[in-house]
């Protein structure tokens, strides 16, 4: 029984991990290390709840919600608030930058500047083309909240991208 469960979970991880990393990288504003941590936390939670995951009507929704919850949990950690990020790690090549590498640097910086809920709303609505209802389910909020967060986020992104194009500087 446990062996079957482990094999099923292993197959699930093989089929979904790269997509999870891509989504987590977008949700963290391009922070590949934090994205990997979120994916590990998410997979751990999914393994523990594997029977419930298999019974879920919408496994994709369950997966997205677990990932967002892991991001929320991570942001609440006390040591995370005292940690300092650096722009570039000296021992890491540019080619390893992450799977969200197809994003323009200006857009990546503008996304990173958004609050986490706004960023998540934009990622799910526009990068993954989810409906307002599916996004609300993933974020655990109302559809109205998704609409307002998305509208505010798009306003901020437009302003940030307009500013960077006027100054010719990418942050």
Automatic annotation (TrEMBL):
**Name by which UniProt lists this protein:** RNA polymerase sigma24 factor
Q: Where is the RNA polymerase sigma factor 70 region 4 type domain?
A: 107-157
- SUPFAM superfamilies this protein is in? Sigma2 domain of RNA polymerase sigma factors, Sigma3 and sigma4 domains of RNA polymerase sigma factors
Instruction: Give any Pfam family that matches.
Output: Sigma70_r4_2
Record's Gene3D superfamilies? 1.10.1740.10, Winged helix-like DNA-binding domain superfamily/Winged helix DNA-binding domain
- UniProt KW Transcription keyword: yes
Would you identify the family this protein belongs to, as annotated?
A: Belongs to the sigma-70 factor family. ECF subfamily.
Q: Which UniProt keyword terms apply here?
A: DNA-binding, Sigma factor, Transcription, Transcription regulation
Q: Does the keyword Glycoprotein apply?
A: no
Residues of the RNA polymerase sigma-70 region domain: 21-80
Cite the InterPro entries for this sequence.
Answer: RNA_pol_sigma-70-like, RNA_pol_sigma-70_dom, RNA_pol_sigma-E_actinobac, RNA_pol_sigma70_r2, RNA_pol_sigma70_r4_t2, RNA_pol_sigma_r2, RNA_pol_sigma_r3/r4-like, WH-like_DNA-bd_sf
């Amino acid at each position: 029984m446990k062996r079957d469960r482990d094999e099923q979970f292993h197959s699930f991880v093989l089929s979904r991990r790269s997509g999870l990393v891509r989504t987590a990288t977008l949700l963290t504003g391009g922070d590949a290390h934090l994205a990997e941590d979120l994916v590990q936390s998410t997979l751990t939670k999914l393994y523990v709840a594997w029977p419930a995951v298999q019974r879920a009507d919408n496994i994709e929704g369950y997966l997205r919600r677990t990932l967002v919850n892991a991001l929320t949990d991570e942001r609440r950690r006390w040591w995370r608030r005292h940690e300092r990020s650096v722009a570039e790690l000296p021992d890491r090549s540019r080619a390893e930058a992450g799977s969200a590498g197809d994003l323009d640097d200006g857009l990546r910086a503008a996304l990173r500047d958004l609050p986490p809920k706004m960023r998540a709303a934009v990622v799910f609505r526009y990068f993954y083309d989810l409906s307002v209802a599916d996004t609300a389910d993933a974020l655990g909020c109302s559809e109205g909240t998704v609409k307002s967060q998305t509208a505010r986020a798009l306003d901020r992104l437009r302003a940030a991208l307009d500013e960077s194009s006027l100054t010719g500087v990418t942050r």
